[in-house]
Amino acid sequence: MRIETYDFGRIRIDGKTYTSDVIILPQAIRDSWWRSEGHCLQIDDLTDVISAKPNVLVIGTGYYGNMAVPAATRSFLEAKGIKVHTAKTAEAVREFNELQKNIGNVVAALHLTC
What we know:
By secondary structure, this protein is α/β, with parallel strands linked by helices. It contains three helices and eight strands.
């Protein structure tokens, strides 16, 4: 899957526009993704990601970077063999597209606002 464009609150993936937070998996997009603690990413918010067993998870922390990724969440994912990359969502989009071209088996969890 390829992210074509991103701007505050809006993302276009493979020709379809989404206006809610998304998880991009190898064969599906989970839209209307919401976290149990809003702007703090918890392990339970990533069950689809963990099940997909990616090599890399790219986390978009929002337009302004307001979504926190606690050390416990990052450590849990890394213990599962998942490399974690975090960045403001615009940078995360660029990184996701690049990593997907070069290494494959990459998923993304993207907060589109804040």
